[in-house]
Amino acid sequence: xxxxxxxxxxxxxxxxxxxxxxKNRTSIEQKAGCQLDIKYIYVRRPHPELPWQDxxxxxxxxxxxxxxxxxxxEVMGGIEPAYRFVKTCLQNKxxxxxxNKELIACKGAELLAIAKQxxxxxxxxxxxxxxxxxxxxxxxxxxANEIDDIQGILNGTTNFILTKMIRNGMxxxxxxxxASELGYAEADPSADVDGIDACRKICILASxxxxxxxxxxxxxxxxxxxxxxxxxxxxxxxxGVIKLIAKATRCPQTRKxxxxxxxxxxxxxxxxxxxxxxxxxxxxxxxxxxxxxxxxKGAGKLPTASSVISDVIDCAKSADTIDTLYWEDCTxxxxxxxxxxxxxxxxxxxxxxxxxxxxxxxxxxxIFSLPVLLARKNQPENEIAFVTPYFSPEQLxxxxxxxxxxxxxxxxxxxxx
Length: 417
Ligand code: HSE
Hints:
Blueprint: E1 2-8, H1 12-23, H2 25-32, E2 35-42, E3 56-57, H3 60-64, E4 69-74, H4 82-91, E5 95-98, H5 101-117, E6 122-123, H6 135-141, E7 147-153, H7 156-167, H8 172-181, H9 190-193, H10 196-210, E8 220-221, H11 229-238, E9 240-250, E10 257-267, E11 279-286, E12 290-297, H12 301-317, H13 332-338, E13 349-354, H14 361-367, E14 383-387, H15 393-405, E15 409-416
Parallel strand pairs: 1-2, 1-4, 2-3, 4-5, 5-6, 8-10, 10-15
Antiparallel strand pairs: 7-9, 7-11, 9-10, 11-12, 13-14, 13-15
Helix pairs in contact: 1-12, 2-12, 4-5, 5-10, 7-8
The structure holds L-homoserine.
L-homoserine binds near residues 157, 184, 185, 192 and 197.
């Protein structure tokens, strides 16, 4: 039997899906166990420059109402109209393969329930980690485990920017422009550099691992725009690098989840410290497996298309909804009861301070228990940097407020992984 596919969107990922599909069609069909073809590619307006002109379609209803279409690939991004289209397709008994992390992070529980009611699937391997298999391993291969911890570099663009700034001396803007040119960055790159994209991705992984929808609005999220080359130099002296880290951990006693996205100092010994450029790394700790590391290209046309097509294959193979890929919705009240307040959790932090006078160093030594001072080239006399003992962000902010009153200003603050 021939199963027909429709692709919604023909940007970087959509065109990559068509390209990889036609390049590897024979082996893809073999793995799917049936013949497959792309019947439609939905675009909002005509695009005479695109190949596959015979498949381009500007009318979504034609696709939604065509009984020959079994699988719909959604690679438009954003919530609307993707949400409306996906919902309609599921209700019309078409399975979905999507790369849309915003859609899954914001509407995942609802869409998974609609898929189940209609005995079809919504699969989203490409929504986290680009070409890295992580969604399927998490709910299938690691299914025997309680997941204790997930830590990852989940955004290719910011990792690319940080690597280029450190290694090639590129400015932030130059590196961001290059990431956009290579098709890594979001249409609005503030989603990358402000940590929002990584936040959506860790929410998807945490929802899958812990069975309840974790909504991004309840997760503490910081980006990389405030990082400076000076912080990078001090990090090196400390023995590590700065990475944008997304992490979710379940406390064994309270069963509450601590989840956050922020730039963090990662020690050279950590496997995540060597994840550079557009690569992503995700370290999952299961209670039976211990650490499992996933590594690969986290963004880009073909890696992302690879994950989307793996979902197309699974959609083609599945006669009904895949039960293990599921989580329940969670009200605002429930979210507050299952997510730890990050401001109360003790962490160590790197601080860079500007003293009003060198003799204030004694006070710093007293408050922070004789910290080892870090050094960098051309360090101004009154600038100091060091790593604090454990404080909650709330406590540390209180200390910094008091220091400010004495003329000691904060130049940089990054927590340790
Ligand atoms: N902008 C995203 C990133 C694309 O850089 O990781 C892949 O999700």
